[in-house]
Specification:
Strand order of the largest sheet of chain B: 1-2-3-9-8-5
Strand order of the largest sheet of chain A: 2-10-9-8-7-3-4
Shape of chain A: globular
Number of domains of chain A: 2
CATH superfamily of the largest domain in chain A: Type I PLP-dependent aspartate aminotransferase-like (Major domain)
CATH architecture of the largest domain in chain A: 3-Layer(aba) Sandwich
Low-confidence stretches of chain A: none
Number of helices of chain B: 4
Order of helices and strands of chain B: EEEHEEEEEHHEH
Helix content of chain B: 10-25%
Distance between the termini of chain A: 59 Å
Number of strands of chain B: 9
Distance between the termini of chain B: 12 Å
Strand content of chain B: 25-35%
Helix content of chain A: 25-40%
CATH topology of one domain in chain B: OB fold (Dihydrolipoamide Acetyltransferase, E2P)
Strand content of chain A: 5-15%
Radius of gyration of chain B: 13 Å
CATH architecture of one domain in chain B: Beta Barrel
Mean pLDDT of chain B: 92
CATH topology of the largest domain in chain A: Aspartate Aminotransferase, domain 2
Number of helices of chain A: 12
Number of strands of chain A: 17
CATH superfamily of one domain in chain B: RNA polymerase II/Efflux pump adaptor protein, barrel-sandwich hybrid domain
Oligomer: heterodimer
């Protein structure tokens, strides 16, 4: 049964009223050349029973491996109440409410979420979420161009140390809109933004500099110095941050002299399971002076006619239902359901709990790096300090090693050969608070066996 | 009934123009326009030095219920934006032809702007 409430008769009456013969007739103005009869690669519809079975089989194929991969999606413990609450009927919707009179609960959750993001980033205002970290970065680049009117270049410096998937998404979304995203090289000795590559751009018209913290390699950038450099060169600062790290690190709003202008990232580590890659939830916050360029929805706190506190969407003149083509973004809704999970997750953890998670991640990753680099043929590519990821160099190609580990039920990390050929035989590893010392030991033993076996062969 | 001063020129898109003694042109939105928009909460004014072509969107006026572009009636260089509107957008509601001016433009040479006199604009405003 299709989930459309109109009967064939209803549809016929409506079409008759407007003088159109068929639903397809509504699309007559789209030229034939632009139409697709069917979508290649999209299979026929399945029944619910068939779809459930297929999904269960696919999930079983993933297995329950011991995971040491991060690279933008992080396995954290999610307290049981998070999804027990999120799936309650009252809030089980991804959609954002227009009707304040019927949506106070959802609007209050959005407001709480925004307050938490603003608090974590030390910026003035947050939106009610975006699709994911990668598209949030793209939106931040577009926003910076709108917000920085003195800069005419629409050039964004996007360091090589930013997640390569995020960079590809940012290119795809922004280039058709006239932005130029220019790569700033990584210092191959430190795994951080190369200060000389940056210095070479001094004095040019640059709209914004993206500062990843921690960067894709888990290394900590010198966010203060980078922010000061951007300010001195008339550029805005876009912080691309892991929100868990903000529990223990200086927040973007306090970087350098005056802080970042915009912070963005993926809030997946807050209560959102890995789910084979998505959906996740992007966040974005900014200084108040830029609020009218912020994309997405914003919930505000106000009072009703009787003076009672209440919540409503606000600053809607930025959005497409009012500003049409000149809206700040074509985002018309948000990741409401995952935003709700993130809010409940953070509320359960509290600041002290989140700090414990962050410190446990740092400690466990330190133990992992120590245990693995203890093996012959394994060394850390870069000196610290780092957050909860590290690049390890092996004495042989990474892919076969990862395959052997996978055969033992261990996902040993991300092979960096494709995105960073200059790194040689390198992999990116991660350990969050969900990895125990026994897990770390199991990985080290397995890697030792794999490397030893290959050496003996 | 909205005010339409006889000594100003107007556009169909509800801007007014006043030529100042130094040859620059002051531009704002009409009393009719501010009444239609309601209480203004934000005005995005252009910065000095910006080059405008006739018909360019040069400012945004935002009320609690709508946001509208203000179009430059003529080509020229922005000499000043009304900085007072940043903290007091309501100046446009209170005094649309005076303190509520939005920008001053130094007209580029060439063709004169197509504009309406008060009587012609009154007909436009009456037509909605």
């Amino acid at each position: 049964m299709p989930y459309i409430p109109h009967t064939q008769d209803d549809v016929a009456v409506m079409l008759g009223r407007i003088g159109v013969e068929s639903i397809d007739g509504l699309f007559d103005e789209i030229p034939q050349a632009l139409r697709t009869e069917s979508l290649a690669g999209v299979p026929d519809a399945l029944t619910e029973m068939e779809a459930s079975r297929l999904a269960a089989e696919r999930a079983a194929a993933d297995g329950r491996p011991l995971n040491f991969i991060g690279a933008g999606a992080y396995e954290h413990h999610i307290p049981a109440p998070v999804w027990a609450l999120v799936t309650r009927g009252e809030i089980y919707s991804a959609y954002t409410p227009y009707q304040a009179e019927a949506s106070q609960g959802t609007l209050q959750i959005m407001y709480e979420y925004q307050s938490m993001i603003a608090g974590l980033t030390a910026l003035d205002v947050s939106n009610a979420s975006l699709y994911d970290g990668a598209s949030a970065l793209a939106e931040a680049c577009l926003m910076a161009v709108r917000a920085h009117r003195r800069s005419k270049s629409a050039r964004i410096l996007l360091p090589e140390t930013v997640n390569p998937v995020w960079r590809r998404v940012a290119h795809a979304i922004t280039e058709g809109q006239g932005l130029r995203l220019e790569t700033v090289a990584c210092d191959r000795a430190t795994g951080r933004i190369d200060p000389q590559a940056l210095a070479a751009r001094a004095g040019e018209d640059i709209t914004a500099l993206v500062v990843p913290q921690p960067n894709f390699f888990g290394q900590l950038e010198d966010a203060d110095a980078l922010t000061r450099w951007a300010r001195a060169n008339g550029a805005l600062v876009i912080a691309a941050v892991n929100p868990v790290s903000l529990a223990v690190m200086k927040p973007p709003g306090e970087w350098g002299d005056g802080g970042a202008d915009i912070a963005c990232g993926d809030a997946q580590p807050f209560g959102v399971p890995l789910s084979s890659g998505g959906p996740y939830v992007g966040f974005m916050a900014c200084r108040m002076e830029h609020v009218r360029q912020l994309p997405g929805r914003i919930a505000g706190r106000t009072v009703d006619l009787e003076g009672r506190p209440g919540f409503t969407l606000t600053l809607q003149a930025r959005e497409q239902h009012i500003r049409r083509a000149k809206a700040t973004s074509n985002i018309c809704t948000n990741q409401g359901l995952l935003m709700t999970a993130a809010t409940i997750h953070l509320a359960l953890l509290g600041p002290a709990g989140l700090e414990r998670v962050a410190r446990a991640c740092i400690a466990r990753t330190g133990e992992l790096v120590a245990a693995l680099t203890h093996l012959p043929g394994v060394r850390a590519a870069f000196p610290g300090p780092r957050f909860h990821e590290a690049v390890l160099r092996l004495d042989r190609p990474v892919a076969p090693v990862l395959e052997s580990l996978a055969a033992e039920g261990i996902i040993g990390g991300l092979d960096l050969a494709r995105d960073f050929p200059w790194l040689g035989d390198a992999l990116l590893v991660c350990a969050t608070e969900t990895r125990t010392p026994a897990d770390v030991e199991a990985y080290a033993r397995a890697l030792g066996r794999v490397l030893g076996r290959a050496a003996a062969a | 009934m909205s005010q339409i001063p006889a000594d100003l020129r107007y556009t169909k898109s509800h801007e007014w123009m006043r030529t100042l003694p130094d040859g620059t042109v002051e531009i704002g939105i009409t009393d009719h326009a501010q009444q239609s928009l309601g209480d203004l909460v934000f005005v995005d004014v252009p910065e000095a030095g910006r080059q405008l072509a006739a018909g360019d969107a040069c400012a945004v006026v935002e009320s609690v219920k709508a946001a509208s572009d203000v179009y430059s009636p003529m080509a020229g260089e922005v000499v000043a934006g009304n900085a007072g509107l940043a903290s007091q957008p309501e100046l446009i509601n209170r005094d649309p032809y005076g303190e509520g001016w939005i920008l001053r433009l130094r007209p580029a040479g060439g063709t004169a702007a197509e504009s309406l006199d008060a009587a012609a604009y009154a007909a436009v405003a009456a037509g909605g």
